[in-house]
Structure formats: C-alpha cells, structure tokens
Amino acid sequence: MTRFDTKIAVLLRDDLASWQRLNVTAFLVSGVAHTTPELIGEPYLDADDTEYLPMFRQPVLVFEGAAETLALAHSRALSRGLRFSIFTDELFQTGNDVDNRAAVRAVPREKLALAGMAVHGPKNAVDKILKGARLHG
C-alpha cells in the first residue's frame, strides 16, 4: 500500500441531509483539484481504449463533526496558513458560481454558517486541523 506524505480531507457538518453531504463533498474537492493539479493522476483507459477522466492519485477521506468542530477546523486551517475550500448554508439556496461567491462574500469569517470544508496539506497538519472530527460512516 502506498503511503502519502499529504492528506486530502473533507469535513462535513453532521446534521446535513444525505443529498447535501454528497453535493457539498463534490463541490469542496473541486477546489482542491483546481489548486493542486499535481494531485491528479493520468486518464483512465478500459480494455477497449475508451478514455475516462483522471482522478486524484490519493484517497480523499471524509469526516464529520458538529458545527463547533467545523468552526475549530476552520480556525486551525487559517492559523496554519493552509488554503482550503468552504461550503456555507447559503450556497444551498444559490444556483450559480457568481451568486455562490457573493453569498460567501456577504458574511464575516466568524459568522460563516459552515456546512463543510476540504483541505489538502501535510498529513500531520491536516490531522491536527481535524482533531475532534470522526470518519464519516
């Protein structure tokens, strides 16, 4: 089994509906993929040479926690200087990227209603950021 020095992790608020968890996860990891292209592997090919899109070269671990756990993780990621993506409750009401960014921009950092976040970084730093969260089950 390959060991990685870095970790890709998604942290979801534990009171989200199933459809929200899936939607938030998909949106959050797109930010990680965009800002860290070296995490993406080569395209996939089947036995008939049909080509499929490449994916992350390492696992994405999904965690969950209470709103307080998410707020702490947000603070810890900021204090460590790691870039990360966020999804707020307001984004469930918008329907496009322009409105999404405007919804986040309208709220001060300490008042963000975080539904989830995704982070990529050194394994030990990500572990410290996620302290108190549990693997999504």
Describe the structure.
- A 5-stranded mixed β-sheet has the order 5-6-1-4-7, with helices on both faces. It has a two-stranded antiparallel ribbon with strand order 2-3.
- The protein has helices spanning 18-35, 67-79, 97-105, 123-129; strands spanning 6-13, 44-45, 51-52, 60-65, 84-88, 114-122, 134-135.
- Helix 2 (67-79) packs across helix 4 (123-129).
- It has 4 helices and 7 strands; from the N terminus they run βαβββαβαβαβ.
- The chain is globular, with a radius of gyration of 16 Å.
- Helix content is 34%, strand content 25%.
- 27% of the residues are buried.
- By secondary structure, the chain is of the alpha+beta class.
- The mean pLDDT is 96.
| Total of helices | 4
Low-pLDDT regions: none
Q: Structural class, judged by helices and strands?
A: alpha+beta
Write out the strand line-up for the largest beta sheet, numbering strands in chain order.
5-6-1-4-7
Instruction: Describe the largest sheet.
Output: 5 strands, mixed
Q: Give the topology string: H per helix, E per strand.
A: EHEEEHEHEHE
Distance between the termini: 22 Å
Strand fraction equals: 15-25%
Helix content: 25-40%
- Count every beta strand, where a strand is a DSSP E run of 2 or more residues: 7
What overall geometry do the principal axes of the alpha carbons give?
A: globular
Question: What's the rounded overall pLDDT mean?
Answer: 96
Radius of gyration: 16 Å
